[in-house]
Design brief:
- The structure holds two protein chains of two kinds.
- Chain A has a single domain, classed as 3-Layer(aba) Sandwich (Rossmann fold).
- The longest helix of chain A is centred in the middle third of the chain and has 13 residues, at about 65-75.
- Chain A is an alpha/beta fold.
- The relative contact order of chain A is 0.20.
- Helices cover about 30% and strands about 20% of the residues of chain A.
- In chain A, the strands form two sheets. In chain A, strands 2-1-3-5-7 form a five-stranded parallel β-sheet, with helices on both faces. In chain A, strands 4-6 form a two-stranded antiparallel sheet.
- Chain B is of the alpha+beta class.
- Chain B contains five helices and ten strands; from the N terminus they run ββαβββααββαβββα.
- A five-stranded mixed β-sheet of chain B has the order 2-1-5-3-4, sandwiched between helices. Chain B has a three-stranded antiparallel β-sheet with strand order 6-7-10, with no helix packed on it.
- The chains are: A alpha/beta, B alpha+beta.
- The interface of A and B includes residues 85, 92, 95 and 137 of A.
């Protein structure tokens, strides 16, 4: 039987959760025996090659591209897991949610103390994904099957959850492994 | 007065003294009932409803309800814990609780209750309200983003410190903790040694220069759930 596929992505995140995946150390050899990586920054595959068993989502949705990628993951993955506080609750990027979008732009490109922008232009190239009005946790955009909170979730948390899912066991993590920080 | 009152919590026989609340009698018997606005030494307030139990099938706050002979109390059941999870979920989405950089993380009672009740992420949409910071006082700050309006600071200042530094202002969704001064905490007579400065269950009222002192893994609720010490029979 072919190995189940796992896909990962980082939306509005810092790649810290992906670092935490790598932090499983030599267990990554065991992981490679268990799964094959599909679309993921880990192997740099850009497009889904087929149906995946598990999708790991780091980061919430701050722009329209994030939403498209997340919807693509939902369409291709049997189980979707939001990994980390940004994916589960918005996280650090969601700090802008208390400020209207226009004010965010003005602070970043016009008024900020270190801004040098003589043309007084706010970037508006069609190539750039438009920002959403605020940053959304993943489960406010698509259905999410499991949440692994943490900033980042520890390598053990990610490992235990993946192994449980891949071996058809219930995901029941010990108390020390579910933390919000 | 020496008569004992017998009742049950989740089928367990509990013996309490007249005048005790359900929460106190349970605690004495090593049964932990989750709570947030309750704090030992303060007048019970009954506002957070996290300590809700079913008494003969009716919901009541265990921190204010006196014990009575023969009452049948349900506390740690799926039904009651589901109610408690809803309350904790709502508290998380109604404020701005960024655990990842909060000084109180690891020792926060709101966070610890979410851990204990098995909440991986709140199920309601986040509201991200705009709330204020008051950094004016030299030794203590207020971060309204994290306030859950348990009134522990209000009661501690009024009843223990005898100062009445804090109270509520506005109503409904706009209700917030206010200070007894024109605008800022620095203009009150709050001292860093006051009970009110350490009564906050979350990171809303925090002593300055004390954050992040305890490393990960050694904080209050890193290894064991909140309430473990009560269940282990340690008298507080």
């Amino acid at each position: 039987m072919a190995k189940p596929k796992v896909a990962t992505t980082s939306l509005a995140g810092c790649f810290g959760c992906h670092m935490s995946v790598l932090d499983i150390d030599d267990r990554i050899l065991k992981l490679i025996e268990l799964v094959q990586f599909d679309k993921s920054p880990i192997d740099d595959i850009k497009k889904f090659t087929g149906r995946c068993a598990i999708g790991l989502i780091e980061g919430g949705c701050c722009n329209e591209e994030n939403v498209r990628v997340l919807q693509d993951f939902r369409a291709h993955c049997d189980i979707l897991i939001s990994v980390g506080d940004c994916a589960t609750m918005g996280g650090i990027p969601a700090l802008r949610n208390m400020v209207p979008l226009q004010e965010c732009y003005e602070e970043a490109y016009l008024k900020g103390p270190t801004v040098h922008n003589p043309a007084r232009q706010i970037p508006n190239d069609p190539e750039l994904p438009l920002l959403l009005d605020k940053v959304y946790p993943c489960d406010e955009v698509v259905k999410i099957d499991y949440h692994l909170p943490g900033c980042p979730p520890s390598a053990d948390t990610i490992w235990e959850a993946l192994v449980a899912l891949l071996t058809d066991k219930p995901v029941q993590l010990p108390y020390e492994l579910v933390k919000y920080d | 007065m020496s008569a004992t009152i017998e009742f049950t919590i989740d089928g367990k026989e509990i013996k309490g003294q007249p005048g005790q609340t359900i929460l106190e009698a349970a605690q004495q018997a090593g049964v932990y009932i989750p709570r947030l606005c309750y704090m030992k030494g303060l007048t019970p307030w009954g506002s957070c409803r996290v300590c809700t139990v079913l008494i003969n099938g009716r919901p009541q706050a265990a921190c204010t309800q006196p014990i009575a002979p023969g009452m049948v109390v349900e506390s740690s059941t799926d039904k009651v814990n589901a109610l408690r999870r809803n309350i904790i979920d709502m508290l998380f989405v109604e404020g701005n609780h960024f655990c990842m950089f909060c000084e109180k993380s690891g020792s926060c009672e709101l966070q610890a209750l979410a851990y204990r009740l098995g909440i991986a992420a709140p199920k309601y949409p986040f509201m991200f309200p705009k709330r204020e910071l008051d950094m004016s006082h030299p030794d203590v700050f207020i971060d309204h983003n994290r306030c859950i309006q348990c009134a522990r600071c209000v009661r501690a200042s009024r009843d223990v410190d005898g100062k009445h530094v804090f109270d509520f202002a506005d109503r409904g969704a706009h209700r917030r903790i206010a200070v007894n001064a024109e605008a800022f905490l620095k203009d009150t007579d709050l001292a860093v040694t006051d009970k009110a400065a350490e009564a906050c269950p979350v990171g809303a009222i925090v002593k300055k220069r004390t954050g992040y002192a305890v490393p990960f893994g050694q904080r209050l609720y890193d290894k064991k759930p909140i309430g473990s010490e009560i269940e282990a029979g340690v008298k507080s």
